[in-house]
Design a protein that fits this description.
The strands form four sheets. This protein has a six-stranded mixed β-sheet with strand order 8-7-9-10-11-12. The protein has helices at about 20-25, 70-80, 110-115, 150-155, 160-165, 180-190, 210-220; strands at about 1-10, 30, 35-40, 60-65, 100, 125, 145-150, 165-170, 195-200, 225-230, 240-245, 250-255. It is an alpha/beta fold.
Length: about 260
């Protein structure tokens, strides 16, 4: 078991109203003997979509050692409950501002009329890997960009160079649980059937974890999908690696003649 985020229910505060049950898309919460309980740690993704539904403030998210989230187990569990998935628009991780939505990104024509640096290429919300539901429509058949959250600060033309035309997922392998990333990415790839995957990570050693999680998840779910991995330098420059259908790196090249 690894340390990760998971929902905690204070049974002293819980009055058994049951409002949290339909708010949990994975069916991890049930009312047992008049109290809300997590029936299996594997069903809880730790996002906390149920937090905002509890009128007693009995639900929080804690970080502790727990069984890894298992999407396959969740699907079997929901099938046994004969429960349909929660509609996408209702999945908001406990905050209306995190509701999944898709919108039209600024076009190339708009960029040509103004400075490219002033035009956003973001086409959806949210962007945090922990908040994006696997069934998000903007991921379907997309070129998915998985980005360490420090990268945009080191790339001046991030929107034009990397974000345009891609669905982006952002995370920090240093601060988050890599096992969770691996399970979440497997679920995302299985649902989305992406056309291509691009990974952006910083040159610092701790950042390599996000690429490792992507490679492992892709190998398990969609081995034939091509992957480009860019290592961004803290002071500029980047290195690019490409994966074929194999788990290991097949090709390696330096772009723009810049070495880290």
């Amino acid at each position: 078991m690894a340390v990760r985020k998971i929902v905690k229910i204070d049974e002293e505060k819980c009055d058994g109203c049951g409002l949290c049950v339909p708010a949990c898309a994975e069916g991890a919460i049930q009312i047992i003997e008049g109290k809300a309980k997590i029936v299996n740690e594997r069903y809880c993704d730790g996002l906390g979509a149920c937090l905002g539904e509890c009128p007693r403030g009995a639900i929080t998210v804690e970080e502790r050692e727990a069984m890894a989230y298992n999407q396959a187990a969740v699907e079997k569990h929901l099938a046994l409950l004969k429960r349909k998935p929660v509609p996408l628009q209702t999945i908001s991780a406990g905050c209306p501002g995190s509701t999944a939505r898709q919108f039209k990104a600024s076009s190339t024509a708009a960029a040509e009329k103004s400075s490219p640096a002033s035009v956003t290429r973001l086409s959806h919300w949210p962007v945090q890997l922990r908040l994006v539901p696997p069934q998000a429509p903007f991921l379907k058949k997309a070129d998915i960009l998985i980005c360490a959250d420090c990268v945009p600060f080191a790339v001046p033309d991030f929107h034009e160079r990397y974000l345009a035309g891609r669905a982006v997922l952002v995370g920090c392998p240093k601060l988050d649980d890599l096992n969770y990333y691996y399970e979440k990415l497997k679920a995302l790839f299985a649902e989305a059937s992406p056309g291509k995957i691009t990974v952006l990570k910083m040159e610092v050693p701790c950042c390599s974890g996000i690429a490792q999680a992507v490679i492992k998840a892709r190998h398990e779910v969609c081995e034939q999908v091509p992957v480009d991995i860019y290592t961004i330098g803290i002071q500029g420059g980047y290195r690019r690696e490409s994966l074929s259908s194999k788990l290991s790196i097949k090709e390696f090249s330096i772009d723009d003649g810049k070495r880290l």
